[in-house]
Amino acid sequence: MSVSQDKEQARTVSHYSLCAVSFDDVSRICQEIIxxxxxxxKKAGADPELVNSLKKCGQLLWEHLLTRSVKRYLKSAxxxxxxxxxxxxxxxIPWELLYDGNEFLGLKFNIGRLIRSQHEESQPRYRSxxxxxKMLILANPTADLKSAYKEGINIRNQxxxxxxxxxxxxxxxxxxxxxxxxxxxxxxxVHFAGHCECExxxxxxxxxxxxxxxxxxQDILSMGEDSLLPSLVFSNACQSAQVNKELIQxxxxxxxxxxxxxxxxxGVRHYIWAIQRIEDPVSFVFAREFYTHLIKGSSVGEAVRLxxxxxxxxxxxxxxxxxxxxxYGDPNFVLFRSNLKPKPSQVKGAANFCKxxxxxxxxxFLGLVLLTGLIFLSFLLPSLNPTSYYLFKKGIxxxxxxxxxxxxxxxxxxxx
Length: 416
What we know:
- Helix 9 packs across helix 10 and helix 12 runs antiparallel to helix 13.
- This protein has helices spanning 23-42, 48-65, 68-76, 105-108, 146-160, 177-183, 217-224, 259-265, 280-295, 300-315, 344-356, 358-384, 386-415, and strands at residues 81-87, 110-116, 134-139, 167-171, 189-194, 196-197, 207-210, 213-216, 232-237, 270-274, 325-328.
- By secondary structure, it is of the alpha/beta class.
- It has 3 domains: 23-105, no CATH class; 134-341, Rossmann fold; 346-415.
- Strand 9 (232-237), helix 8 (259-265) and strand 10 form a beta-alpha-beta unit.
- The protein contains 13 helices and 11 strands.
- The strands form 3 sheets. It has a 6-stranded mixed β-sheet with strand order 4-3-5-9-10-11, sandwiched between helices.
């Protein structure tokens, strides 16, 4: 493994470090973490013992998986965004829950995952984001999740206040596979709130549950061959990120056909989902907070981290609900950059104006300095030296009379 900052110049020689890993031990720890998350889901209230167990397991992964140099870098580097470039066999490890003794990585950094794959398909094509992105909200397609419908309505209402920045389409009835296949490619952002069914025997059949069946991973891969798919997909669905529990599989390319990997290999830059079943109010709070920060100009990774922190504020860290959401993609990507800084054309226009009127601006500045000095002397000089103040005041009157005479003379000349 190696760690570096993207601002560093390309090095002629780069270094990596080796770490001896027992994957049996890592697998055992991951299974324990899954058990903790499942128990936190079943409990009605927050249990401090669960988060303590999560910290212990996260610290074991921190010790098992990272070399000393990497751990030292992550503890001392003043960075916000952390990109994990992972081999495909390692995606099942909950990297966001590694615990450095003080914080979980997923709460400390804006984390995004990138996949390194040996899949020999052609490289995916990515769509560029227009100045006014289009968003599609698919809410409660099976008509049995009232909270999913409410989630979709609230997200639409959020963006209603920003119609100048984004175009919104909301769909809740008659969402079938034909509709999704026909319209998905037209949008830059897609939010899905509903059911997802996983097919362990054939991962290609895993997909979103719609009115007439599933929109599957195989459907996504087929569309990605000839179409540009959305840049951001938020799959706020039950078990939509379920993957096989083994860390290393003989035929790991089967993961290509899971729903998450299908989107990623088809050109989706950012994919967000939950690794376990989430209660409806919790998923709504997370989605609302994520889009609130995204529309304000936060990066995708920062919006995810802040949404995790909102869940902690609402339900407490002991609930472990915040640990369920993952992000694949560059966490530093900003969808609405106009909120962060002026457009280059505006900056260039201001610079040209200053250059063109440099002399006039200098005269204005000099006049302001002289005016400030006169006001200051008007108030200070009487108390210091009354005689000097009398002469100063008389001189000011003479100056104003001269200016008045000059203006009258200039006006007469203009009229002549």
